[in-house]
Amino acid sequence: MSKPDPVAALEIGTSRTVMAVGEPLAPGRVKVLAVEEIPSRGVRKSQIVDIAQAGISVASVLQKAEDKTGYTIHQANLAVSGPHVRAKMYTAQWQLNGPTVTDEDVAGVYNQSLDAGIDSAERMLLEASELGYGLDDIDDITQPKGMTGRILRLRTLFVHGSAQRVADARKAADYRAKLAITDAYFSASRAACAVLSPEARRDGAIAIDLGGGSTGYTVWSDGRLVHANVLGVGGDHVTNDVSLALGLTRAQAEQAKKEAHAVVGGQGGSPRIDVPSSTPGFDTASISRRALETVVNARLHEIFAIIRTELDRENLLHRVHGGIVLTGGVSAQPEIARLASSVFGLPARVGTLIPGIEGLEGVEHPASYATVAGLLLMSQVEPDSGSLIKRIFGGFFGK
Amino acid sequence: MNKSLLLLGVGGAGTTMVRGVTRAFGTPMRVHVTDTDAASGAEGDIPFTLLGGSRLAGRGSGGQSAEARAAFEDDPSALDAVFDGLRTCVVLTALGGGTGGGATGGILKRLHASGISTMLFATLPFSFEGADRERAARSEAATLAREADVSVFLPLDDLVSGKDNMAEALRQAHDMVSSGVTLLWRLIEKPGYLRLDPERLHAAITGAGRARFAAASATGDDRVGTVLAALAESPLLARTKDSAPVRTILAGVLAGDDLRLSEVAAVASGLSAAFGPEAKLEIGTVNDELTFSGRLAVAVMLFEESPALAAQPAARAAAARSPLAAHDRFGKTDKTIWEGEDLDIPTYLRRNLTLDR
Q1: Domains of chain A and any CATH numbers
Q2: Of B272, B251, B351, whose CA–CA distance to B306 is shortest?
Q3: pTM of the model
Q4: Which of B309, B348, B351, B356 best probes binding to A when mutated, by most A CB atoms within 10 angstroms?
């Protein structure tokens, strides 16, 4: 029996460009053969502002991945994030053709939902999550076929992004690497699927993907994606704040922030931190740990507080019984889970990859690679199952 | 006409003041007025938006700021088309109840959410109008100061004195505000030796906080001395118990072809000496022989420093670089605005946090 073709995932982030190559094992299982990254160029707030620069980053990271695995990679799935990503809840209604629900009725309400999910050529569907059927005055029906009634409803959460932004990412992938993008998915929900077990998604969880340019978050309940959003603030803002507050270069600020506890006065560390200059011949800067942590804490606390406020408004916090899981590069900040827990009043942890993702056991801070790992899982869905259908979480991710 | 800059009048008094500016300015400028009272839009050719038509039927708020607030909130996007393409909006209004006090906050929030910097000029009622109106105005002012990038509150008592006739006093006060704002507009839109263009204004006012504003003009050999003396004595520029030290002095010198560089230098040094030797001075000039022949006018805006920042030299230095420095990093992308706050500006600066160095 021949080995399956490798699958690949690409994330063009604000801080780094990451490529993962994997080997499908079975539905819901993948072996990661390589995960490579290099610092990004030409990206701000998760948006490409220089296609050529971003394209060079893609070519470099692709080369590294190919060298590591020995495979030639022609195509990959793309992770999409940034403040242009939005979620929209829509309930489609369908008048039954007869007294009971038939396959045609189910297909009819489904197609109507898809038609309405993306009603603009400028938007592109990234994900969709079926939240349940309704029939006349009955809600939360899981399988309506054969039931008697008049009006069939389907409630769906659509996550969509700017078609132009996705097109820019495709151009960057093609620019030098000639890498074709198979499909595009919402990075925060892919990261969530890499760190939340089906049980955790059933119990209710908030997954926060703290990226360099933006912070995406998803809420899961009863095994379904019930809310998603992106805040255009991320680790790049933390670096910028540290640089401005303490008079450091960006390179120094990037280095200094790794030393900071997310909670001011956290455990360990000397009161002053020496930050060598990135330019030879210039003095090492000595900065106050407390000042550094005040700046870092202010920004991270604000990010969590904004998300909490948004979820309060959506009346979703009561559906979360499993707590908060953090992913993304910023989740490596010391004591960040403690900060998240204090803001939300819920248990919080930094994500660990689900058992179905193999091959990253020895990697430092695997939560940084949750997005590409989750994308590799998605790559196992057969293309002919339909590019829209494969995003519905009723499949092997759902239950 | 600069299309990135709008003068917006809110309420009856705001409409009156905007009309005064357009009359004095003489050439086309981007203006708009809005009110709950349809009468404000009935005369003149200034574009008008009625607020809360379905709620108040164009009869006005009856001096009730809650009614005006609800009228705006009925359709918060009512003015969105007016704001299209703007970078900076100057808002004129009157506080103490009514449309100005009720709707201006929502309008400023909407502008801020669109990334448009805002400069608010609001009059405060005469003291003889009663304690209730004064309390209402103070409360409204406190709210609006948080919503606007720059807020200038002009007590009517300080604008006019010695008038028995209230209508005449109000007219004179509104005329004074109008002429001050007209000077500001000339400074931005008319070419001079030192130009204060809209981008420079935008950068100067973004997140600047509270400000004081006054203008004076004079003719004759010692016109500079006369103007400086008038400004130094102006109650509008005087420090109060709530005032903070002056961080930036924004000044415009407007004159005809006879403006001498020595006069500009004398105005600059005189303003620095009077209002803040350590304050940063931004000065612009307008040469308009037709309007200012033989006359010299100076418009001054004093930007105050927030007390929390004043206590922190390092934060002050950072604030001097921000928000422009903060936006350098994110300049090619859309601003991240959440509930009126520009999240690209460092959190510690927006929260005025003390850094223990």
Answers
A1: 86-159 (3.30.1490.110), 198-351 (3.30.420.40)
A2: B351
A3: 0.60
A4: B348
